[in-house]
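Weekly sync, protein design subgroup
Attendees: M.S., D.O., the rotation student, P.L. (late)

Item 1: inverse folding check
M.S. brought a backbone from last month's batch and wanted to see whether the design step gives back something sensible before we order anything. D.O. pointed out we never logged the input encoding, so this time it goes straight into the notes. Structure tokens as presented (139 positions):
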């Protein structure tokens, strides 16, 4: 199931920002049992049951106070790397750099899933839907 919504916020009296949020429970479920893509040295557990879809913390991806970024702006991460991304003491620049390196790999992983003929149909559909949302041809 996917849901795209528009969020509007007022900053100053005359500025309205709109963001197209992509929501998909199936896309988030794809992270289960995958490999951590954040791979933060010395804390990463690699793969396993703690892997989740980690949302971007960048305002340019729709993150706001009390609002998660779009589900299309997620990367697979283990518990410890996710904690580092959200609450760690690293600089904003270091976290964003690590996130965007992982995001490039995330898109590759979604492409592999979208092209697979051996996976469950819901997984293939979730990957294809997010790629379509991002304007990426999975063919």
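Designed sequence read out in the meeting:
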């Amino acid at each position: 199931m996917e849901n795209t919504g528009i969020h509007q916020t007022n900053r100053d009296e005359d500025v309205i920002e709109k963001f197209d949020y992509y929501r998909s429970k199936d896309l988030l479920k794809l992270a289960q049992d995958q490999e951590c893509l954040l791979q933060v040295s010395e804390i990463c557990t690699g793969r396993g049951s703690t892997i989740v879809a980690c949302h971007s913390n960048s305002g340019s991806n729709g993150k706001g106070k009390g609002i998660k970024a779009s589900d299309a702006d997620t990367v697979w991460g283990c518990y410890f790397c996710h904690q580092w991304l959200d609450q760690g003491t690293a600089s904003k620049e270091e976290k964003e750099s690590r996130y965007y390196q992982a995001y490039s790999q995330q898109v590759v992983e979604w492409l592999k899933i979208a092209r697979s003929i051996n996976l469950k149909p819901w997984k293939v559909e979730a990957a294809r839907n997010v790629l379509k949302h991002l304007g990426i041809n999975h063919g």
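Discussion: The chain is about 35% helix and 20% strand. The CA atoms of residues 36 and 95 lie 15 Å apart.
Action: P.L. to compare against the previous round before Friday.
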